[in-house]
Automatic annotation (TrEMBL):
Tyr recombinase domain boundaries: 225-401
Keyword line: DNA integration, DNA recombination, DNA-binding
Protein name from the UniProt record: Tyrosine-type recombinase/integrase
Organism, scientific name: Brevundimonas goettingensis
Matching InterPro entries: DNA_brk_join_enz, Integrase-like_cat_sf, Integrase_catalytic, Integrase_DNA-bd_sf, Integrase_DNA_bind_dom, Integrase_recombinase_N, Integrase_SAM-like_N, Phage_Integrase
């Protein structure tokens, strides 16, 4: 099939708009000679074209740089400039790449990924990724060349983590941090680390470091059904336990965070990391700038607003709603107090995240449409968003207030 040639200034707007069904064509950049992008069915690939061995009479070569999406046009252009500079100095980027492919280890690939492939990830997610790389991926695969990782190697990697091969039980010196937590392995750790390894190899494919992703298609362990829905009676038991813990002098910040989780269905991090600047008291929304799923807004009920107004006091306008006892961070002691609350409620199997499921079940039992429930919970899925995007703030706010009121009443034992 003929590869048509075109020219244009390559930028994100142009490249995003380029599309192809069955035809294949290349667009060469008008600013950097030799830099272009090949458009084909299902793929947009940046490349650089050059000659080695003597000017116009030299051998014409073409080197792929990476796929659009993994690379932005400006980033691809920088790489192309570096490759062309290598040619000008008498080198051959294609030969250098093949040598690099043969020599790069998984450990080096992981470091490359952490340096260049995680710009869109939240700091908390990156923290977990680094931990899984250091605890599981590097110990089991770090010394292998990236070209040596086959499907069979990945399957053994999966099984080794599940069996606890990477488990360690060392006692750290000095103050213990999350990074010092014991590594136990297991099927859950295996599945999550497989997901990360697959992402790292997708990055490598996008950078043209490997031809295929060996993780793709490898079966992972099925997770256990983790959803737990709170009943109205269980809300009442938790409400009574919260009152008892308050009377006994347990940490007020943790108890308030737990109340808000039960009343909003928000994620723990969204409440723990809430700032006063994100609380819209007048319209009764939490306008979160940085949640697990990015910026979003969550409608809340009167019971939530009342709790937040009582906390407002003299705290600084843009500070944390729940500041740490010392330093400039936010409060992180909720899980310890939650263990006390759930045991007092006689619900030792209930997790904090189950409050989110419970909120959804209360809304469903109240007859709220699925799209409204998704809006109340702040879902960011594109399909979910498109279903409720036409709804006005007022109906959502009314629904949020009603569901929050149901949760509040249940926690008060129906009073």
């Amino acid at each position: 099939m003929r590869d048509d040639q075109k020219t244009a200034k390559l930028n994100k707007t142009l490249v995003d708009a380029l599309s192809s069904s069955d035809s294949r064509f290349t667009v060469w950049d008008t600013e950097l000679k030799g830099f272009g992008i090949r458009i084909g069915p299902g793929a947009k690939t940046y490349l650089v074209r050059y000659r080695v061995g003597g000017g116009r009479t030299g051998t014409l070569k073409q080197l792929t740089i990476g796929r659009h999406g993994t690379l932005a046009p400006d980033e691809a252009r920088k790489i192309a400039k570096a490759k062309l500079a290598e040619v000008a100095a008498g080198g051959d980027p294609q030969t250098s790449r093949e040598k690099k492919r043969q020599e790069m280890t998984i450990s080096e690939l992981c470091d490359n990924y952490l340096q260049n492939g995680v710009s869109t990830k939240k700091a908390s997610t990156l923290y977990v990724d680094r931990s899984r790389i250091e605890r599981h991926i590097k110990p089991l695969l770090g010394g292998l060349k990236i070209t040596e990782v086959t499907r069979a190697v990945v399957e053994k990697f999966r099984d080794d983590i599940a069996k606890g091969t990477t488990a360690v039980a060392t006692k750290p010196k000095g103050k213990r941090t999350r990074a010092d937590a014991p590594v136990t392995g297991g099927k859950g750790a295996s599945t999550r680390t497989m997901g990360l390894l697959g992402g790292i190899f997708s990055y490598a494919v996008g950078r043209d470091l490997v031809a295929t992703n060996p993780v793709r298609g490898v079966q992972r362990f099925k997770g256990k059904a983790a959803e737990r829905f709170l009943s109205v009676e269980e809300y009442g038991r938790l409400g009574a336990a919260l009152e008892a813990c308050t009377a006994d002098g347990y940490n007020d910040q943790a108890l308030t965070i737990i109340r808000l989780l039960l009343l909003t269905g928000a994620r723990k991090g969204e409440i723990e990391q809430l700032r006063w600047s994100e609380v819209d008291f007048s319209s009764k929304w939490l306008r979160l700038g940085d949640s697990k799923t990015g910026a979003k807004a969550i409608p809340v009920g009167d019971a939530v607003i009342e709790i937040l107004q009582n906390r407002r006091g003299n705290q600084i306008e843009d500070g944390w709603v729940f500041p740490a006892a010392s330093g400039e961070g936010y409060f992180v002691g909720t899980p310890r107090i939650w263990n006390v609350v759930r045991k007092r409620a006689g619900l030792p199997d209930v997790r904090l995240h189950d409050a989110r499921h419970g909120h959804a079940s209360l809304a469903a039992a109240d007859g709220q449409p699925l799209q409204v429930i998704g809006a109340i919970l702040g879902h960011k899925d594109v399909k979910t968003t498109s279903r409720y995007a036409h709804l006005a703030d007022s109906p959502l706010r009314q629904a949020a207030d009603r569901v929050s009121g149901l949760a509040d009443a249940a926690m008060r034992g129906g009073k």
